[in-house]
């Protein structure tokens, strides 16, 4: 008897992005940022536009949040909030250089008529939260250790009414959850174990025995900072090893080049917030 693997199914998504019109590396707040390395602003914008076109070409809707003066990291739109059921759990940034980004995101959700939860603790939005709608009735994986405070996880659980699993990040190179772990579909994840504490590694192995486990090379290539619709996986072009693993697992890798935006410590996912109605 021949067993045929179920075909991966894509699902239309809605995203929020912000163009890198003010992007530069003016300060260093993560290990990837080097203020002495110049940014090619024109190339950064072209790469961002290609990412946006890639997502719309896959059939997804992309809203654009206008860039604002004095906020060079605003291109990393995933950090501004985390959404579930048309409710935005707002961000409160760790570093003052990014604090005003939260106001721009709050205004966007108000304009769209979404409920908005004002944060009381430091958290950096979808940078440290991942959602799996089908896992255990709707599960939130939440990172802490560098940017988001662990106490924010319980606030998110109360505000969004979904179980939250706290995961401790221990490697400063992987300062946000979204550079160490990603949802591939509504119940499946990929992650790099070395980014997490020993206890968190055990939790992930228990909850997700069928996860696609990435290695350090995959993670350092920003491969886990990806966006997936359940079939098409948009990821950094440098992450060739992870792309091969994804293809073997039945996903369709869609590589994009984001060399300039990597200089700020982010790649595909950092630039893309998912809007979950």
Structural class: alpha/beta
Number of strands: 15
Number of helices: 7
Give the number of domains: 1
CATH superfamily: L-arginine/glycine Amidinotransferase, Chain A
* CATH class bucket: Alpha Beta
Describe the structure.
This protein is of the alpha/beta class and 277 residues long. It has a single domain, classed as L-arginine/glycine Amidinotransferase, Chain A. Helix 4 links the parallel strand 10 and strand 11. The protein is globular. The N terminus is likely disordered. This is N-Dimethylarginine dimethylaminohydrolase. It comes from Asanoa hainanensis. Keywords: Hydrolase.
Which SSEs are present, and which pair or pack?
Layout: E1 14-17, H1 41-57, E2 61-64, E3 81-84, E4 87-90, H2 101-112, E5 115-117, E6 129-132, E7 139-144, H3 151-160, E8 164-168, E9 181-183, E10 189-191, H4 198-207, E11 212-213, H5 216-220, E12 227-228, E13 232-236, H6 240-248, E14 252-256, H7 259-262, E15 273-274
Parallel strand pairs: 1-2, 4-5, 7-8, 10-11, 13-14
Antiparallel strand pairs: 1-15, 3-4, 6-7, 9-10, 12-13
Protein name: N-Dimethylarginine dimethylaminohydrolase
InterPro entries: DDAH-like
Active site: 176 (proton donor), 270 (nucleophile)
